Amino acid sequence: MDNNRYETAKPVTIISGFLGAGKTTFLNEYITYRKGIRPFIIENELGEEGIDAGLIVAPGTDVFELNNGCLCCSLNEDLFDLLDALWKRNDEFDELIIETTGIADPATIAQPFLVYPEIEECYKLERTICIVDAQQIDFQLEETEEARKQITFADIILINKCDTVRKGHLSGLEELLRNINPFAVILSGDKESGYPLEKIMAFNRDDFDGKIFPSGATGKDGHDHPILHPAPHADVENHSHPDTHPNHEEFHHHSISSLSFVFDRPFNLDRFGHRLMMFLNIQAKNIYRVKGFIWANDEPQKVIVQSVSNMLAITMGERWPPEEMPKSRLVFIGKDLASRGLEKMLAQCLDKDFIYP
Ligand SMILES: Nc1nc2c(ncn2[C@@H]2O[C@H](COP(=O)(O)OP(=O)(O)OP(=O)(O)O)[C@@H](O)[C@H]2O)c(=O)[nH]1
């Protein structure tokens, strides 16, 4: 990267938050609010199948997908290369936004921006926002370390999904979050009533510099070694099952793993919704997140599948492009995922009578 770029350094926003907290939903609002400012978005997803990029609503938004790994560990080296490559076309965008995976440690992703001078010259980390699911966060804090790390490193904690909890719950939650991170600005909102974007944009990280480094991350000074480490190899398994056509990709990150499925035969939508709901109810403690698009019989549109814990939402997306053979893509993220059971359950929901054209 060239030197003396400080004046033109691109502002960077990191959006973190546990699986399904509402990062992509917030990102869509953020981009809409910043109309006229050209964002470049880095979408990092755990599974082989990138789903989030397809859920970005602003047309023509520049989205780069980094899938099948986590920027905070296995893809950390890729981030450096990407930032380098991106700088060469820096006249094409005004700001950089990174949406992390739901289990990323944002401190590791932010570190290069804060302590690596070559990057700091070109990119200025303006804010890290942690999206918190008002309803699920107690469970997530109890069950995982990742949710706590994300809150600890945030400049701004945005309590999301306030529509799903009672008002009284929010004051207790705010106190809990303040105990975890006393330095963050705590805000709240939800997708229906909106987010306090003006306050978020007014936040100036420089006012807080030096105060918010948790253990494991360091301030601007004192580093004389490269921050980006070579990636440890992800543990990848690949199976193929000719009768149902799913592709499995599994890798482990901390104790959380993901399973991706691709099916080229349509689902029976009623059976799918019913079976998945039952499965989630039984497995709610293990399955943190399901997301994807499915091809359902007789539906000209993609069917969007979203679940956080055992809350399942099935909605209609855009039409399948006529030139594209529809395919269902589903990602399951959780602990001790039973791949055989999941595959069997999904295979049972396929439309058995479908005949390939
Ligand atoms: N009730 C309610 N649901 C919400 C709100 N925000 C997001 N959701 C829903 O929560 C689900 C997950 O939202 P996403 O924005 O995809 O969450 P995410 O954090 O990007 O998910 P991952 O990238 O998989 O970690 C979707 O079904 C959203 O529609 C909200 O404020 N209220």
UniProtKB/TrEMBL annotation:
A Pfam family hit: CobW_C
Domain of life: Bacteria
InterPro entries per the UniProt record, alphabetical: CobW-likC_sf, CobW-like_C, CobW/HypB/UreG_nucleotide-bd, P-loop_NTPase, Zinc-reg_GTPase_activator
Any one Gene Ontology molecular-function term assigned to this protein's record: hydrolase activity
Record's signal peptide: none
Keyword terms: Chaperone, Hydrolase, Nucleotide-binding
Catalytic activity line of the entry: GTP + H2O = GDP + phosphate + H(+)
Every CobW C-terminal domain range: 256-350
Task performed by this protein: Zinc chaperone that directly transfers zinc cofactor to target proteins, thereby activating them. Zinc is transferred from the CXCC motif in the GTPase domain to the zinc binding site in target proteins in a process requiring GTP hydrolysis.
UniProt record similarity statement: Belongs to the SIMIBI class G3E GTPase family. ZNG1 subfamily.
Name of the protein in question: GTPase, G3E family
Organism of provenance: Proteiniphilum saccharofermentans
